[in-house]
Amino acid sequence: MKLCQGQVWKQGREYIRIVKLERLAVEYKSMVSLNTREGSLVQTSKKDFCRLLKGAHLLALDKKAPVARNQADAAAGSQ
Fold first, then answer.
1. How does 11-41 read in b/e, with b if 16+ C-beta sit within 10 Å?
2. Could you read off the pLDDT of 31-43 as tens digits, one per residue?
């Protein structure tokens, strides 16, 4: 399982978004709805986080967002 910062996983009725990914720790946000983005921040070990994700499904990332960010960074760097 390859974890990346910003990934969103669906576990039952709950959505789990990786906020901060470190070597041995993960900070994630547990949300009921992706529209409101309201939820609680939780810090745990990477091992416990992987156990939490058993049976969860990774949601597809929006491929347009990183391109837009890169264009904005390029425009800011040229000034």
1. eeeebbbbeebeeeebebbebeeeeeeebee
2. 999 998 899 999 9
